[in-house]
Amino acid sequence: MDQAQVAAQLSEILGEVLDEPGLVLTPETTAADVAHWDSMTNITFVVEVESRFGIKFKTAEIEEMRNVGDMIAMIREKLAR
Amino acid sequence: MTDRPAQAYPELSWLPDPLPTWAAELAAEVPPEQGWQHLIALAAWRLGGLATVRLDRRLQRLFGDGPPPDLSTRPVRLAVLASSTVDHLLPALRVAALRRGLWLTTYVCDYGQYRHELLDPGSALHAFRPTAILFALDSHHLAGSFRVDESASAADKRLDRLVDDLASLWSKARASFGCAILHQMALPVFPVLLGNAEHRLAGSPAAAIAALNQRLRLRADSQGVDIVALDSRAAQDGIRAWHDPVLWHRAKQELHPLAAPVYGDLVSRLLAAQQGRSFKCLVLDLDNTLWGGVIGDDGLEGISLGQGSALGEAYAAFQRYVLDLSKRGIILAVCSKNDEANGLEPFDKHPEMLLRRSDIACFAINWSDKVANIRYIAERLNIGLDALVFADDNPFERNLVRRDLPMVAVPELPEDPALYAECIASAGYFESGQPTEEDLDRTRQYQANAEREELRGATTDLESYLRSLDMEMRWRRFDAIGQSRIVQLINKTNQFNLTTRRSSDDEVAALSTDDRALTLQIRLVDQFGDNGVIAIVTGRDGRPGDIVLDTWLMSCRVLGRQVEEATLNLVAAEARRLGASRLIGEYIPSAKNAMVRDHYAKLGFALLEDGGEGVTRWVLPLDSFAPRPTFIRSVGG
Fold first, then answer.
1. Would you kindly state where each structural domain of chain A is located, as residue ranges?
2. How high is the pLDDT of residue B111?
3. Size of interface A-B (CB pairs under 8 A)
4. Which residues in chain B have their CB less than 8 angstroms from residue A54's CB?
5. Beta-bridge partners for B587
6. Mind listing the domains of chain B with CATH numbers?
């Protein structure tokens, strides 16, 4: 899956979590850029991402994520393993 | 280990998977007066964590401020007293309540402030005026005071103090609010220090939590507090399904967000039981539900039940579970499509049958549709439809009942009968605080009131259901691929079988290569899947222009779905292709096929002659035949 495909899936998932269909995430997006993307929402989001991609993030990995691009890179790395 | 995916989280395994249209229905606009029922219907599926959050969002938008005006249940104001993060569980609590027709609003005390809020009359908790309080204390909090290196007696004293303290909080809550108290058992989240002998290290967190749960149960019983048995559920699913140490460290969430739907259900079934809203009666299908096979076709010796086969033992084990349910006060009823005499025979005569006639409060065994029969059962037993659980292996029947009687609970039984009992158990239909004396005699009470009587005509709107099924009949002439199934059906089918003529392998093979013979093997596929080959028809030349139908048989599983009419359309078309101008049908009575005595009359054949001993012959002219309208597409080849 290339970067754009992962980004599109993430956009869809966060759109469902926030009830914002059509929401678009770019690699540069951070939680601060999206209304209502708070810590609680973020956990719902991360858990749903793990379940849809069939992956699991380590504690340290989640702490390292600074923006959507970091998350996309981690997902692609895990999927490639 | 945590780096690996595919952890199985607890699921609402007794509910069917949501239809692909679920999200569209969630977004659909409905008139306000239908809003509540619409949301209840959306809750009746195997929803995951995110779907639950989305449904809750809609619920909050429509009914966040108050219940619908015509709510038939008491609104529940639930305060959750927690020592760690529980906000992620609230949507699931509200949605699970919705599933049981309860309107629930929640309050969560400030982080770690539960004791203070309980004791302070000016607190937000007191202003909330709860009707139920749930103590949801996490294991780290509870085990915090224990020390691994203390003596067993010191640990024991500490345990006493802890239980006393919690019990005093229950008393305080009850005195302040006069409301129901629920206490959630502590989750066994701690890694062991000794291992198998952990209990000998009384101060270890793992041992302390196990001992605490044991004592809390006893104390809760003596104080009338309801227990949320999270520890039992975690033992069943595995602790990792419920608790993820990663999330604990990140967000102080002791319970995993994906476990929330089941968590919500565990709590809400108690809240429902507190209002007397639990299910009271289990309505059972017979064939392939209580035994393997079809009693009308396979006979008493042919059905699978009891010792002798793994399948038979699985059905016996399910009967044992059902019998035990009845002994603890659940009423049993039977709803089956069969001749009544056939359906009752195993109850009276099968040596491995655990359920006997006297265990069943009401029998509805006939060929009417099950919706009408379930209504009849509720009437006979004088209980509400919303007190019934309907267990049937057949997805067609399950979905018909779900659609027409949404208040009846219909578990999505797994295909393997070995898993039936677990499915029904995990649904928590029969949750009730305490078993009572009168429970133990309930079946007899109900049976005394309910004698069998004739059913009135069916009033179910089957037509729109049939249309929604998207049925397709796939037919072929006899061929080598279908051979073994054809032979099996011809030699096994007793009930829907016009002539009960048996044929050998060779005879069937000869028919498949005979171009002059009319042969049909018919599958039925619908939105729930492929029912397999369900009907067989054969015919041969008679007098010039006539095709005589030697065999017409059908599986009783597909009765009432217009398969007879659609088959006639196929038979007529094939007969015409073979140059015939008339169809000749024959009915030969047997001990088991009374149900098809009027088959040809119903399909518009005229009586040709009475052959004596109940044999009748029928004729249908093809020149004037117009295909019968049905909701079944037919596809050849």
1. 3-80
2. 75
3. 51
4. 5-6
5. B616
6. 75-274 (3.40.50.1110), 281-460 (3.40.50.1000), 471-636 (3.40.630.30)
Of A13, A40, A53, the CB nearest to B88: A40
Residue B65 CB burial class (10 angstroms; 0-12, 13-18, ≥19): exposed
pLDDT for position B454: 40
Sign for the CA dihedral angle at A43, B262, B239, B160 comes to positive
Distance from CA of B257 to the nearest CA of A (A): 7
Count CA atoms within 13 Å of residue B470 on its CB side.
5
Cβ–Cβ below 8 Å for A62 and B4: no
Find the helix or strand (DSSP H, E) in which B266 lies.
Answer: helix B260-274
pLDDT of residue B439: 54
Which of B316, B299, B296 has its CA nearest to residue B308? B316
- Strand ranges across the sheet with B180-184: B104-108, B76-82, B132-136, B180-184, B226-228
CATH of region A3-80? 1.10.1200.10
- Give helix then strand counts, H and E, for chain B: 25, 17
Residues 84 to 113 of B: which have CB under 8 A from any A CB? 87-88
This model of the complex carries an ipTM of 0.82
Q: Model confidence at A40, in pLDDT bands (50, 70, 90)? A: confident
- pLDDT computed for residue B184 by the predictor: 97
Contact B562, B466 (CB under 8 A): yes
Residues in chain B predicted with pLDDT less than 70, given as ranges, are 1-7, 433-460
Instruction: Answer for the pair B378, B384: CB distance below 8 angstroms, yes or no.
Output: yes
